[in-house]
Specification:
The protein has helices at 2-13, 38-61, and strands spanning 23-25, 64-72, 78-86. With 93 residues, the protein is an alpha+beta fold. It has one domain (2-92): Dihydrodipicolinate Reductase, domain 2. The chain has a 3-stranded mixed beta sheet with strand order 1-3-2. A hairpin with a 5-residue loop joins strand 2 and strand 3. It starts with a helix and ends in a 7-residue tail after the last strand.
Length: 93
């Protein structure tokens, strides 16, 4: 959510008046885990770890890295999501 808020600020600085609710967000934490106790949350995270590890491995096998990226286009469409990017680009430095 913090990244989405920052994206909204940048969009407004660019003259695009969007709200956080307008940003399509891929949460890294499963929404069904948000109301769990700490103990139950940690147990549930084991399943999420497997999913994330699989995504990481697939990206790595293709010479890519996973990055949480905020995007804004000229039409005011905004998103924050985990993307695969080439490992050799300067974005990772």
């Amino acid at each position: 959510m913090d990244v989405a808020r920052k994206l909204v600020i940048l969009a407004r600085e660019m003259g695009q008046y969007i709200e956080v609710e307008d940003v399509e967000i891929e949460n890294l934490v499963n929404k069904s885990h948000q109301d769990l106790s700490v103990e139950d949350y940690l147990k549930a995270m084991a399943d999420d770890d497997e999913i994330m590890q699989s995504r990481y491995q697939e990206a790595n096998n293709e010479g890519k890295a996973l990055c949480y990226i905020a995007q804004l286009n000229g039409n005011g469409e905004a998103s924050v999501s985990l993307k695969e990017i080439d490992q050799d680009i300067n974005f990772l430095d």
